[in-house]
Design a protein that fits this description.
CATH superfamily of the largest domain: Medium-chain alcohol dehydrogenases, catalytic domain
Bound molecules: nicotinamide-adenine-dinucleotide, zinc ion
Distance between the termini: 14 Å
Number of strands: 17
Order of helices and strands: EEEHEEEHEEEHHEHEHEHEHHEHEHEHE
Number of domains: 2
Strand content: 15-25%
CATH class of the largest domain: Alpha Beta
C-alpha cells in the first residue's frame, strides 16, 4: 500500500510498504478515506520528538471504512464508516475508568505519562498512523466511533483531534458566564478553542498569533478579537490594558513547543533543546492572566523542564490545567453541536492533497504557505 514515510527531519515522502494485518483479536484494519496533518505532526516533521524512527508512518486524525475485524471485535463490522480518535486506549484501566483516555496505562509501554497515539513516534507507543491507505486500529471495540449517517466526512475527521482538543482546552479553563478568554495560537486547535469558549459561555474571546491570514480566519470563524503579537511590546501589559487592568480570566495555550516571539526561548527550547521546547506562549499566559485565574494548556511540550515564571503562578493563585485531549469523552456533545448547526468544523480545511503528494502537504502546512490552515490527505479511491 501507499503510506506516508518519515525519512528524517523535514523529509517525508509517499512510499510503498506492507499492508497492516490483524495482530490481536480486538484489532481492526481500516481503509483510510481522510487523513489530516496536525500541528503535532509538525513537531515530528521538525525532528523534535524523541525516538521518531525512519520509515514510520504519521497520522492520528483519520476517518475510514472498516476493512477487516479481529475475532473478538463486537462493535464494528466490515463496511462500517468510522472516525478514529487519536488516542489509543484500553477503556478499562485506572485512567480510562476516569475518562482520562489520553493517559491510558495499557497501550504505551514506553512511557508512564502519555498514553498511546497513532503515528506519533515510539515515545507514544510506536504505532503506525493513518496517513496511509490502510491502518491497524487496536482496541477496535473501544476507540472508533461510527459516523452518524448525516455527518459530512470533513466534519468527522476534525472530530478525531482538532475540535475536541480545542474544546477540552476551553473546558479546562472552567469558563464562567461572561468570562474573558485569551487563546494563544490561531492554528486549528486555537481556532476551535476560541469557538468552544463561546459555546461554554465566554463573554469575550481574544486570539493571539502573528500569522495574519490565520488571525483573519479566526475573526471570521469564531467572531473574536485578535492581537498580532509582532505589534505588541509586552504581552502581559497589553492584555491587561485590553481587559480593564486586571487581565483575562482565562488564558489558553494552543501553541506549544515551537512558539515564536522570544529569542531566548527559541534558542534554548528549539535550537539547543536545553528545555522541552520554547515556552513563550505559556510564559505569556501565566503573566497575563488575572490573579486567581486559570491557565489551560493543550500545546505540546517535551518531557524535560520548561522555563516558565512558576513563582508568578504561585503568587497569583492560578489554577493550571493541562493534558492531551481525551477525544472520545467529548464526541457525543460535539456531534450534537455540529448537528444543531452551531459549528461547521469542515470550514478549517483549506487544502486537499492526494496521499502521494504528502511531501508537498507537509511543506506547505509547515511553512504556512498559500494561507494553509488545515490540510487533508486523500488516499487513492477515497
Ligand atoms: N493536547 C492535545 O491533545 C493536542 C492535540 C492536538 C494538537 N496539540 C498541540 O496544540 C498545538 C497547536 O496545534 P495546531 O494544529 O493548531 O498547530 P499549528 O502549528 O497549526 O498552530 C500553532 C499556531 O501558533 C502560532 N504561534 C506561534 N508562536 C506563538 C505565540 N508565541 N503566541 C501565539 N501564537 C503563536 C503559530 O503562528 C500557529 O498559527 C501544537 O503544539 C500541537 O502539538 C495538542
Ligand atoms: Zn493532533
Ligand atoms: Zn486504559
Amino acid at each position: 500500500m501507499l503510506a506516508m514515510n518519515y525519512r528524517g527531519p523535514y523529509r517525508v515522502r509517499a512510499a510503498h510498504k506492507a499492508e497492516p494485518e490483524i495482530e490481536h483479536p480486538n484489532d481492526a484494519i481500516v481503509r483510510v478515506t481522510r487523513a489530516c496533518i496536525c500541528g503535532s505532526d509538525l513537531h515530528l516533521y521538525h525532528g523534535l520528538i524523541p525516538d521518531t524512527r525512519i520509515g514510520t508512518t504519521f497520522g492520528h486524525e483519520f476517518t475510514g471504512i472498516v476493512e477487516e475485524v479481529g475475532p473478538s471485535v463486537r462493535n464494528l463490522k466490515k463496511g462500517d464508516r468510522v472516525l478514529v480518535p487519536f488516542n489509543i486506549f484500553c477503556g478499562t484501566c485506572f485512567f480510562c475508568r476516569r475518562e482520562l483516555f489520553s493517559n491510558c496505562h495499557n497501550t504505551n509501554p514506553e512511557a508512564t505519562a502519555v498514553g498511546a497515539i497513532f503515528g506519533y513516534s515510539h515515545t507514544s507507543g510506536g504505532y503506525d498512523g493513518g496517513q496511509a491507505e490502510f491502518v491497524r486500529v487496536p482496541f477496535a471495540d473501544i476507540g472508533p466511533t461510527l459516523l452518524p449517517a448525516d455527518m459530512d466526512e470533513d466534519d468527522a475527521v476534525l472530530l478525531t483531534d482538532a475540535f475536541p482538543t480545542g474544546y477540552q482546552a476551553a473546558e479546562m479553563g472552567g469558563i464562567q458566564e461572561g468570562d474573558t478568554v485569551v487563546v494563544f495560537g490561531a492554528g486549528p486547535v486555537g481556532i476551535f478553542a476560541a469557538k468552544s469558549a463561546w459555546l461554554l459561555g465566554a463573554g469575550r474571546v481574544i486570539v493571539v498569533d502573528h500569522v495574519e491570514y490565520r488571525l483573519d480566519f479566526v475573526r471570521d470563524f469564531a467572531q473574536c478579537e485578535t492581537v498580532d503579537f509582532k505589534s505588541v511590546g509586552d504581552m502581559a501589559m497589553h492584555l491587561k490594558k485590553m481587559t480593564g487592568g486586571l487581565g483575562p480570566d482565562i488564558c489558553i495555550d494552543c501553541v506549544g513547543a515551537e512558539a515564536a516571539g522570544n529569542f531566548a526561548q527559541t534558542l534554548t527550547g528549539v535550537k539547543l533543546k536545553l528545555q522541552g521546547g520554547a515556552a513563550t506562549a505559556l510564559h505569556w499566559a501565566i503573566n497575563a492572566v488575572r490573579k486567581g485565574g486559570t491557565v489551560s494548556v493543550v500545546g505540546v511540550y517535551g518531557p524535560t523542564f520548561s522555563a516558565v515564571p512558576f513563582g508568578n503562578a504561585v503568587n497569583k493563585g492560578l489554577t493550571l490545567r493541562m493534558n492531551q485531549a481525551s477525544v472520545k469523552r467529548h464526541l457525543p456533545r460535539l456531534i450534537e453541536h455540529i448537528q444543531a448547526g452551531r459549528i461547521a468544523p469542515r470550514k478549517v480545511i483549506t487544502h486537499r492533497f492526494a496521499l502521494e503528494d504528502v511531501a508537498d502537504a507537509y511543506h506547505i502546512f509547515s511553512s504556512k504557505l498559500d494561507h494553509c490552515i488545515k490540510p487533508v490527505l486523500l488516499p487513492a479511491g477515497a
